[in-house]
Amino acid sequence: MKKTFAILLLTLLIFASCKKSNDKFSFPEKPITIIVYTGPGGLIDVTARKFADVASKYTEATFVVENKPGSGGIVAMKRLLQLPADGYTLFASTKSNISKIVSSGGEAYIEGIDWAAMMMADPECIITHKKQKVNTWEDLIADAKIKDGNQLWLGPANGGLDHVTALKIWDEAGIEAKWIPFKSGGKARAALLGEQGVAYVGNPREVLGNDDLQIAAVSSLDRLAQFPDVPTFNEFGINNLDNEFMWRGFVLKKGTLPEIKKWYDELFVKVNNDPEWREYWERGGIDVVYKGSEEFTKIVHNDKEQFTHYLHKIGIINTEATNLIARFATGKALNFLIIISVLIFLIIGIFVNRSPKRKYLSRIMLPIFFIMLSIIFFIISFSFPSNEKVGPSVIPRLWIFILIPLNIYLLFNILRQKKEIVQERGNTKIIFRFIGLLILYLLSIFYFGYFISSFVFLLVGIYLLEYRKYLTMLLISAGWLLFSYLIFYKLLYVPRPVGKLIEMIF
Predict the structure, then answer these.
(1) Residue spans in the chain of domains classed CATH 3.40.190.10
(2) Comparing 323 with 159, which gets the higher pLDDT?
(3) Cβ neighbourhood burial of 244 (10 Å; 0-12, 13-18, 19+)
């Protein structure tokens, strides 16, 4: 009976495998998500939605656009890499993502992504205000020489694509200027119209619909058909700026099956050749050109080298003197140091709690703990950009430089008042509870993010200090989060940790 059952089971398995091998390729069987790293309305968001619309002519697949803004595309890339390599998730990418990857030390993202298709090349250009005296290329060069490095150029993102393009232009033209970054291209153009600078670096389509803006020079081999009156850099004798462009395309997670990649390749080619797609983009001076995975990957690696060079030059990537510390500050070695420090401190705490001198020793532990914590955060601060005199690392280091001397002073006072402390009556457990809360806070940031963890930490910490005015507690906690958001995130552009669990949910 058992032998008969085994033969029957084997026959069924063979039949099932044969049937499976004879099944036709049936991708896709569910909706495809296109992840966009900006909010709705951005140009890459428009690109993703236009692609979904045109692609519907050639496939019955359903496309869903999902906006995941944050950290210049890092949040969206993490989302892509967290999901299976099953082909059901596309990431709408731009050249600006490479700048963020390089500046954040995230080169591993480049290797974890299959650069599936580059769909267009949007040439970089210099845009000026017609009503200003300085509005042509010749005017810009003459004015730059007069101002001797104090000419103001405007654009989005410090260290982004447009900033790096400006640096290349200055090098090739033999001039110096200052880059004034804005939160978005729209705000930078508004500043140009408000005469806060003389030049804006962007793309040709950005002058459409505004008669006060004009293009002084464009990065292209030949004049653009849509802008026949706009000169190229070649015409001014600058020969190394004829191929600077913002590419836009789509990527998959590495490991996607070859047959799925082939399905996408065929779809990308069909969309790229579609008259509606081409007419929509070409009217803005964009070169609608398709590059497959192999060629696209080469372009990405070349961009990485270019960004690395220029971000080193302006100091956004840490200099050689601090580069080793920066790698340590963002790597596994730092995590190991934190874990070992916490374990050692917990072990010492257990022995202190059993000691007859626990009041005195527990008092000593608190300032020592804060000194250790300050040193760790000082190391972390080296991973922040340091291209400016007042950069993202300044405020954390100011807090550290205040905390360390203060805690050394407290430690000195505790050592001096040993007899009085030993004779005091009081509950020493509150100190250990507070240290334990700090440890939990540091761990929870990794999972729940900075804002949620900080809010809970402040509420519980104030409660441990036996303060019971709950409205005041809420206002203090919320006030600190608002301060952190405005100063670190909005003013200094230092992203706060989102948290692994929060990333997975949203």
Answers:
(1) 125-243
(2) 159
(3) buried
